[in-house]
Amino acid sequence: MDYTVPWQAFAAQDGLRRHRDAAGSVLAEAVCSTRTARLADDPRFATNALRVENRAALIPQLDCIFRTRTVAEWLKRLRAAEVPAAPVNNLDGAFAEPPVAEREMIVEYDHPDVGKVRMPGNPIKISGISKTISRPAPRLGEHTDTV
Length: 147
Known about the structure:
By secondary structure, the protein is α+β, with helices and mostly antiparallel strands. Helices cover 32% and strands 18% of the residues. The protein is elongated and about 70 Å long.
């Protein structure tokens, strides 16, 4: 059973983006253009309860609308309207997201066997602690004597 509609990924011209509904009328205003049906004015979609009830009519319309622009265009438009939305990323796309760099989520190690290795960093950030100490995975048997 759906509790919020829409709550899913939609295909854009060049990929996928995910939408989590915050306010249906804001979403409808953000996605509608003069060429498309005025979803914001459609009484079937006025409230979340009505969108849940009329999901079968709404989702195909949104699917067609989202295919008219690129992911970047939709994100710009939806973020300007303060509608929660995000791209559906592969690993390269996820690592390229601005918060990844801002939170120093990619670390680089000098591994003794393979050289430079880039890996996800520790996601736990504690106020007042400048860096989390981390190292590359140990080599086979590296800590046997210590343990």
